[in-house]
């Protein structure tokens, strides 16, 4: 990700973020750490539980922890919402994506707790083969495991939603502040002060430039997410499918068929269809138009492109079919969606 505006390390004040993160961990009884879009930690671990500290120090077991973190983050990005799951020791963790202007820039990983009500079934992302060595290591940490905080599923779910909205709000405000500062600096460099200049008109001119450049930057951010989408792109847990996903994201202007996707993977369409549905939870005929409608919503929100132009941009056969598909997923026409969105922004 080349644009520094998307680098979490450049967006937030890490010293203040650590204070907030420690407070959130203390209140929620969850261990918390923040990672960038590559999954690399950008913060310290707030209140990491002794059991997890012991597990992560083990060279063998820590590999399973890393796999859980990676898979959890990918699922959160795919769902565009917090993802609650169990690690290889059946400990509950949450991956909370930080997504600004539909651009994934990092995640808050929280958890290291056990559920008080065992009736809730959560997905265990990674499983370990049973071994005597692992059992011995667990017995050595059994007391630490028993001391893990316990919460109800409702408490975990509520906390996940709170962290999702709070962290995205804080980062969004930080981006807005940084954008204003950077645009102001650029304006000053473009228009040096002169003793002969009337400062009142100059101030108005600078303010006008700031507004124009902020609008331009906002448009650029969304266009970047539509044209590039390198981070938000679906990452398949099945490597066989990844060439198809890459092809789909790189050819948004084409009307791509299931056969086209299968060819990218060098497998038969029937086999592709089976493993695609298993991977995404929906068939290709639903996945493809749903994703294109998400891209269409971004264009409707951030550009003045006519509906028929957006239809062409995203490879629909004609504007009528685009409108019909849009209504199927959003229950209103593209024009009405754009009007309602802009009314909400005023």
TrEMBL record:
Family annotation (InterPro entries): Homeodomain-like_sf, HTH_AraC, PocR_dom
SMART domains: HTH_ARAC
Organism phylogeny: Bacteria, Bacillati, Bacillota, Bacilli, Bacillales
Keywords: DNA-binding, Transcription, Transcription regulation
Record-annotated HTH araC/xylS-type domain positions: 242-340
The gene coding this protein: rhaR_40
Protein name: HTH-type transcriptional activator RhaR
Top-level taxon of origin: Bacteria
PROSITE patterns the record matches: HTH_ARAC_FAMILY_2
Organism: Paenibacillus auburnensis
């Amino acid at each position: 990700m080349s644009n520094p505006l998307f680098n979490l390390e450049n967006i937030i004040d890490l010293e203040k973020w650590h204070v907030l993160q420690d407070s959130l961990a203390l209140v929620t009884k969850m261990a918390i750490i923040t990672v960038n879009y590559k999954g690399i930690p950008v913060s310290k671990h707030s209140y990491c539980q002794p059991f997890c500290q012991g597990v992560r120090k083990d060279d063998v077991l820590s590999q399973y922890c890393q796999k859980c973190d990676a898979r959890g983050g990918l699922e959160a990005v795919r769902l565009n919402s917090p993802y609650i799951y169990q690690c290889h020791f059946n400990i509950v963790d949450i991956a909370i994506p930080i997504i600004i202007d539909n651009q994934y820039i990092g995640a808050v990983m929280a958890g290291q707790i056990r559920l008080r009500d065992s009736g809730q079934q959560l997905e265990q992302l990674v499983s370990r083969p049973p071994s005597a060595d692992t059992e011995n290591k667990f017995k050595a940490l059994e007391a630490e495991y028993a001391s893990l905080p316990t919460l109800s599923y409702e408490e975990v779910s509520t906390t996940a939603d709170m962290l999702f909205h709070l962290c995205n709000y804080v980062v969004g405000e930080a981006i807005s502040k940084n954008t204003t500062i950077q645009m102001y600096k650029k304006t000053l460099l473009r228009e040096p002060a002169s003793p002969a200049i009337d400062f009142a008109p100059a101030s108005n001119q600078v303010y006008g430039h700031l507004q124009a450049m902020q609008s331009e930057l906002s448009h650029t951010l969304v266009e970047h997410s539509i044209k590039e989408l390198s981070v938000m792109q679906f990452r398949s847990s099945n490597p066989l499918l990844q060439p198809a996903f890459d092809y789909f994201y790189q050819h948004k202007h084409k009307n791509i068929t299931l056969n086209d996707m299968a060819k990218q993977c060098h497998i038969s369409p029937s086999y592709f269809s089976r493993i695609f549905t298993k991977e995404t939870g929906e068939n290709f005929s639903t996945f493809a138009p749903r994703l294109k409608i998400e891209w269409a919503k971004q264009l409707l929100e951030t550009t003045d492109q006519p509906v028929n132009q957006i239809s062409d941009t995203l490879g629909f056969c004609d504007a009528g079919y685009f409108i019909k598909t849009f209504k199927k997923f959003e229950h209103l026409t593209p024009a009405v969606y754009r009007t309602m969105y802009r009314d909400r922004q005023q």
